[in-house]
Design brief:
The protein is of the alpha+beta class. Helices cover 20% and strands 40% of the residues. It has five helices and ten strands, in the order βαββββαβααβββαβ. The N terminus is likely disordered.
């Protein structure tokens, strides 16, 4: 496992967000992704399948959602930056593990064999095929009162365990060479 700050062994190149190829809807909803955050020397990643991308406040942004009971939530709260990364199908089992195990209980990177890398201080798994390095611009916890469609709320939040939404400026996009 590479040490913090060590250059990743897998080669990436930087592209602009406009050069991203593929169906972003499929990438987040069907292929899944990982959000990775780090604080106080501890990093964790969790699988996400809700989110979005666009332009807001004259910035290209990623929208990510994390429930407060997730270990990654505290790390995301404590850091100004995070990454959203996408993978080849061969990593489906590992992505499932990142979504079902808690980083409070173990090092998911070690358990899955994934390697933590950093670019400009932003953590990401170096097994990714695409990495979005993001800086938090805005955060908001969803609330029952703000749902205009109660059916969506009831279906998605029967326990009222609402996500916190993060709007992150896309600082850099890395793609595997």
């Amino acid at each position: 496992k590479p040490e913090k700050g060590v250059e990743p062994t897998m080669a990436f190149r930087e592209i602009t967000p406009y050069e991203l190829e593929g169906n972003l809807f499929k990438m987040i909803a069907k292929d899944w992704a990982l959000i990775t955050a780090e604080a106080d020397g501890k990093a964790n990643a969790m699988t996400i399948s809700w989110g979005g991308f666009g332009q807001l406040w004259n910035e290209l942004v990623a929208f990510t959602f994390v429930r407060p009971q997730r270990y990654t939530y505290g790390l995301t709260e404590a850091s100004d930056v995070y990454s959203v990364s996408f993978y080849e199908e061969k990593y489906r089992k590992e992505l499932g593990y990142f979504g079902s195990a808690s980083g409070r209980d173990e090092d998911k990177f070690q358990k899955t064999g994934f390697h933590l890398a950093h670019e400009d201080g932003v953590p990401y798994p170096e097994e990714a095929k695409v990495v979005l390095l993001c800086q938090k611009l805005y955060a908001h916890t969803l609330t029952e009162e703000e749902f205009l469609c109660k059916e969506v709320m009831e279906k998605s939040y029967p326990e009222r365990d609402f996500h916190k939404m993060y709007v992150g400026k896309i600082l850099k996009v890395l793609v595997r060479e």
